[in-house]
Amino acid sequence: MKTIKVLGVDDSAFMRKWISDFLSEHPRLEVIGTARNGREALEKIAALRPDVVTLDVEMPVMNGLETLQRIMRDHPVPVVMVSSTTTEGAENTIAAMQYRAVDFVAKPSGPISLDLYKVKDELIGKVLHASEANVAALTAPRRQRPSWRPSFKAAARPQQAIVAIGTSTGGPRALETVLTQLPPDLAAPVVAVQHMPKGFTTSLANRLDALAAITVKEAEDGEVLQNGTAYIAPGGVHLIVREEGGALKARFDESPPRAGHRPAVDVLFESLAAIRLCRKIAVIMTGMGSDGTAGLKKLKESGNTKAIAEARETAVVFGMPRAAIEAGVVDVIIPLDSIAAAIVQLIGE
Fold first, then answer.
1. 238 a catalytic residue
2. Nearby residues of 75 by Cβ (< 8 Å), 6 or more positions away
3. Each residue of 37-72: b (16+ CB within 10 Å) or e?
4. pTM for the whole thing?
5. DSSP characters for 57-122?
6. Gap between the Cα atoms of 84 and 200, Å rounded
7. DSSP 3-state assignment of 15?
């Protein structure tokens, strides 16, 4: 198998050493260099041509966000951010996802984490996954967002449909593309699972809310789902939907992770299989693995469901859409920029 060449970027010599040592333990990974700031990273990327870069968010001289934007402009390569779990760190990490980072790993205890070994396996796994990312999809220009005229919110209408989205690696940017193209009077609520740890989904929801015409928020246990609003599953719990008293409500489920994920797309989709109140529109977008396929099978068996999968050419990682397509449970396979229009069309049928 091909050796994956990695460049590690962190302003801490201690972190650089640990990240290099951890990655070097895997037989497919070769750390070909390190850099202590963004400027040095850009020079070494140009000279060494790594397959993947791990990039600290908080650095002197040139911070991680500025460095990332320069990398994707001048030397596009899959980047895995290594971030702190502070509020500011989470916000910067979510911004990095929008600036085309493939994924991120959270340092367990701040910029210099003496317990970095706790995320060693996660770091190795995400670098391996990043090496398979579709760089062309990461760097493709995005369609201009529609400009919506002022319109009433459709929240007061009874739900005729519900939209459920599942995504993972490369998902924050994909969610941004879809949610910002939905109209503010969307006649359905949207529930979305993005594989992401606790502490980061709030920042994700806040950032998407600032960009989208619909309302975007982190889901709350027990709240009634409203049309024209997208609900992001909080990290650390499964999000499910229940039909209660003629309304759809968000509920949290703390059952064990499914295939390593909590929230899991399968758990959300399976809960929707029991919904009889309205039609269901399920969307599978970029992500590693097959989360969502088992749940989608149950959704399709329950009837009244249409399923959309993101096409290979726009998916940063085609794993999740491919698994659903190969299982024969997808109705529509389309590029990322067409998904919002397909959702609106299916709601209106």
1. no
2. 42, 45, 46, 49
3. bbbbbbebbeeeebbbbbbbbbbeeebbbebbebbb
4. 0.92
5. SS-SSS-HHHHHHHHHHHS---EEEEE--SHHHHHHHHHHHHTT--EEEE-TTSSS-TTGGGGHHH
6. 10
7. helix
Question: Containing H/E element for 344?
Answer: helix 339-348
Instruction: Please give the sequence-ordered ranges of beta strands (E in DSSP) within the chain, or none if there are none.
Output: 4-9, 29-35, 52-56, 79-83, 103-106, 161-167, 190-194, 215-218, 229-232, 238-244, 247-253, 279-284, 305-310, 332-334
Q: Give the closest residue to 115 by CA, choosing from 199, 7, 15.
A: 15
CA distance 197 to 263: 9
What is the model's pLDDT at position 151? 43
List 20, 129, 131, 195, catalytic entry: 195
User: What span, in angstroms and rounded, lies between the C-alpha atoms of 7 and 30?
Assistant: 9
Tokens of 51: 């397959």
Identify whether the C-beta of residue 194 lies closer than 8 Å to the C-beta of residue 221: no
Given the residues 11, 261, 291, 338, select the one marked as catalytic. 291
263 preceded by cis ω (within 30°)? yes
Tens of pLDDT, residue by residue over 50-91, are 999 999 888 878 888 999 999 999 999 999 998 876 667 789
DSSP state of 256: P
Instruction: Give the tokens for residue 32.
Output: 């070909």
Place of tokens 């920029």: 337
